[in-house]
Design goal:
Blueprint lengths: L1 H26 L9 E9 L9 E10 L6 E3 L6 E4 L3 E5 L5 E4 L4 E3 L5 E3 L4 E2 L12 E5 L4 E6 L8 E5 L2 E2 L6 E3 L5 E3 L12 E4 L1 E3 L5 H38 L1
Antiparallel strand pairs: 1-2, 3-17, 4-16, 5-6, 5-9, 5-13, 7-8, 10-11, 11-12, 14-15
Length: 246
């Protein structure tokens, strides 16, 4: 009896946690470069005095779906998408190096190349500063250059090269800020083979239809677990009645 309650109670709790993750995926279905969160259940025995006859359910986060999203042209000079495997390196708010697939960049009031969230975009020599009154272009290898707005036959000035990395997906972990970091704590090395698409952005890889179906299945799992708890309660009540008669 109590084994069923342990399983159903913990299963209902973690089903709600999974629903929260699926809701987060749906909320980011249109977020540039977003990577879908994946979850799964696993059974864990309850340890303590006596035999391990009871188990409870744990929501085990597998990780993220690293499948690439679709690339859409925007024509904006500061938009860039990673083509195939790879990541943009940025400086997180705590000063550590983090990684993202969101290549929608902007210029700070001081002319520093940043993400839309305000993180400095990393390069082969620190941050990238863009002089005023210039037009910026990003090449397929990540080289950032600029030319004066005045035009004329002026050679482009190379401002730096985006730090593009391609670590093993198993060594990346998603942070609370949505950025990925190395599980080892050591920054990834730049990979010269990573290529980008200028004037384009990568969409989210969340499949809206599959996420909606998952929400329905999770709702049914929650109802099933709650019915098991109610059944266990009814069985306990009947057993108490029988014992009281005897």
């Amino acid at each position: 009896m109590d084994r069923m309650i342990y399983t159903a109670m913990s299963g209902a709790k973690h089903t709600m946690d999974q629903q929260a993750n699926v809701s987060n995926n749906l909320a980011n279905a249109t977020t540039t470069g977003f990577r879908e969160q994946l979850n799964t259940f696993r059974a864990v025995p309850v340890t303590g005095q006596g035999l391990a006859t009871r188990t409870y359910v744990v929501d085990s986060t597998v990780g993220s779906n690293f499948t690439a999203g679709s690339i859409q042209d925007t024509g904006r000079p500061l938009d860039v998408a990673v083509q195939g495997p790879g990541w943009f390196a940025v400086q997180a708010s705590d000063g550590s190096e983090a990684y993202t697939r969101n290549g929608s960049f902007q210029l700070s009031p001081n002319g520093v190349l940043q993400t839309q969230s305000g993180q400095n975009v990393a390069s082969d020599s620190g941050s990238i500063s863009v002089p005023p009154n210039t037009r910026v272009s990003i090449a397929a290898d990540g080289t950032v250059s600029s030319v004066p707005d005045a035009g004329g036959a002026v050679a482009p000035a190379i401002l730096g090269r985006l730090k593009l990395v391609n670590p093993n997906d198993k060594t990346l972990k998603r942070g609370d800020d949505g950025l990925f970091r190395m599980t080892t704590g050591v920054p990834a090395q730049a990979d010269a083979n990573v290529r980008v698409v200028p004037g384009a952005l990568e969409g989210s890889n969340v499949n809206v239809v599959e996420s909606m179906v998952s929400m329905i299945n999770l709702a049914r799992q929650f109802d099933l677990n709650m019915k098991l708890v109610q059944t266990a309660q009814n069985d306990a009540d009947k057993a108490n009645q029988i014992l009281s008669l005897s």
